[in-house]
Amino acid sequence: MSTKSLWFLWLISTLVLSGVLGYELFAESQKPHFLPGQTSLGHFQIELECSACHTESFADQQAIQQSCVDCHGAELDAVRDSHPRSKFTDPRNADRLARIDARYCVSCHSEHTPETTRLMGVTQPQDFCAYCHEDIADERPSHEGMGFQTCASSGCHNYHDNQALYEDFLLEHASEPALIVAGKLPLTSMEELIQVSGVSWSPYQPASGETLKQQGWQEAHEQWTSSAHGAADVGCVNCHQPDTDEAWADQPGTEVCATCHESEAKGFLAGRHGMRLAQDLPPMTPAQARLPMKENASHKELTCNSCHSPHEQNTTTAAVEACLGCHNDDHTLAFEQSPHHDTWVSFLEGGVSREEAVSCATCHLPRTEYKQFSNTIVRVDHNQNNTLRPNEKMIRTTCMHCHGLGFSLDALASEDLIQSNFTGLPATHIQSIDMALDRIEPSNTTP
Amino acid sequence: MKKGLTASALLATSLLGGCGGSEEPAKTGIAPEVFTDSLFAVMNSDRANYTKLIVQRLGPNGADAIKPNEHWEDMEGSAPLPAQMFRYGAEGVAEVTDTFTYSLQSLWPVNKQNAPKTDVEKEGLQFIADNPGQNFYGEETLGDTTYFTAVYPDVAVSPACTSCHNDHKDSPRSDFEIGEVMGGVVIRLPLPKT
User: How many helices (H) and strands (E) does chain A have?
Assistant: First the structure.
């Protein structure tokens, strides 16, 4: 090929490449060719939606920080973050900030750096606590000789959420047994209302049979008549045509569910199942997941209806079967052989009440209490991040309804036990309660 | 009172801004210690009132209607401790301005993170402990910024202060008395860069 032809080929290639990349950069919302590196488990679902974090071009550190706060600020407030930004803004911390600028999330959670990213998107070395607490043994002689890499990996401390780990809490719950015999999970406020009001779930008689001509509709109607929506007179048009000026929607979206189930939808959109929808991206599918998923579920799209069959709204199905339909990791696969599952089977067979039965959702989508003026409202928290990692986050909302604090700490620190879905006893013992007791009554626990 | 600074050290970051023209009259500000003294007056009044009118009057030493506790968020009918109320105020201020910061510290802190850390803090807290009724003023450079730092005595104003600190398992002292200096309020102003 002649030199002239080669120059021509180079020019054409350059123009085409520039055009393609330029179009992606300036016209497309997703920019796969500009991704500088894989993101963490928490963000990979939305990593191609650059503007989710990079809200402005050439954004400064403060703008990135605001993106973090916009999505995670409320959850950090809710867990009484032990290291909020406000702890570090005083100038007396200048020497500490020179070592690690704890005012900004990205100082510890740097993205696009998979080679240095650990669980929870942490990109600091495991012994980072030493930056500020290097003299902890002066204050707590019991900590003498402990490696700083063990502070947060041993089940004793978390950087953000220490609600179940602080010393006075350990002391308050020090004597609890492994299994609280009378322990029960809370009913949601809706379930309680149904129980108290005596609302029946008997078939609802429609005013007109005109719309039941097609077989599919007939089946949907039969399911609906036995559902919570049927019992509450939430009819077809309430979901399929909430605005009479709009056309009938065959498959109403999450936004329709959110009209009534605002809190649940908010949690769903903040969690792993709905975070793509929250960014106006196509729904998450198991095929995109980094966790092991069942092959035959690859194509499923995650919306409210994925777990809550649209006309049944069966929360029993949603609490176990829906999860097992997609997830294929060891922990999930072991559930049906676990003691927790035995309680679930007993519930399905009428042996125990719902409050005594443990499902997947019990731990991962827990029933959480909220204070509303003087009332306590119990709702299902649909943001599984709130109890996922570090796993001590689930102790108060989940484990402690039925188990003592000490047993819960030990169980959650035993990796093999987690993989077997808690079949057996903890192989690990966390000493934090012993150490807390030792501080107030040395003779009790000191050998 | 340590007279480390004079009124010539003006808090003038904003007041002197834009004074390039020689025709414009020199603008004056207020002396840093006047500013910090005023801030402390407000802080100290609010702090004493919360301690006496809420914690002392409604807590276990009074009507026993509330339970002031460090972990008040975990307790029904509980209320934040005076030191926590003070810190929440400081954090709230820090969210809206960086023209000054303040904190409560002590030579005998329950929480060791509240022990003096910088040389000026250590000197100041020792000064107000050794010289009851007096304040301390100094300058220090932290990071790349020089600060005017004032330290004011934090005095036990009610039995709620002394009983709580004397009985706390993390307190290094158990002999505080009413009227005694238990710690200090440290207020910092960034000084204009020269």
Answer: 24, 2
